[in-house]
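__Record contents__

***
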Amino acid sequence: TSDLHLAKKLNISREQCLEAATAAVKQARQYTDDVQFSAEDATRSDMDFLARIVEAVIQAGATTINLPDTVGYATPDEIREFFTTIQARVANADKAVFSAHCHDDLGLAVANTHAAVTAGVRQVECTINGIGERAGNASLEEIVMGMRVRPDRLPFTTGIRSEHLFPTSQLLCSLTGQHVQSNKAIVGRNAFAHEAGIHQDGMLKDRRTYEIMNPADVGVPQTTLVLGKHSGRHAVKHRCDALGHALSRVELDQVYRLVIARADAQKTIDDADLLAVIQEVKLTPVR
């Protein structure tokens, strides 16, 4: 519905667009009572024309009005104003459900989607892992957990069983061969992993110091305290204890020094590496 798309891509006038849209909706209503109309590039469309075409397609039988931010151009305040304005200017807006479809070209797809919901949108189009054209679409898991963690600002529910988010993300990765970046919110490998010594110490005292959600709530088995060159003695001791090795202060100091030295070369230390270090220390005579 944007003038850019009408002129450069479709080579039609606004009137031709209006006629084609209403005709398509009327034809679709011959087969189903639930018809969605999507106005591509809605957020860059002339508001007067957009309001006119939305009112016309609702009159023609559309029950859902999807208004995409096709190129991820809008900001959250613009999206909120956009949906508030269009619903106020369309006389029969109450006869349809409004939907948001946000792209992530500026990294704002999730924020824009949340903003749209606060403006009255009751359907959001999103994808697991945020996959989609170009920079992707709004991430389903981030939308869901944003509402779950911040009901004070986003007092909405989705009906999504959040404990399936991580397993579903992993399934999608295996099917597409596209893996999410390690620091991806909610489902990334590092989302519930802590390496910095200060963070690890806080986590061992109370996980709420550095986690705003329980990993089990999204299907992640557990928080991970990563042993690396930034880890502290508390984390090393905690992992040694978990592996069944209660070390003396001297032994712990030796293990810690070796862990830090090796982590500097190989980045992280897994349980097998740690057990090898413990064994080395225990077999080394104290001097």
User: Anything to note?
Assistant: Residues 193-283 form one domain. The first strand starts at residue 36 and ends at 38. The two ends are 80 Å apart (CA to CA).
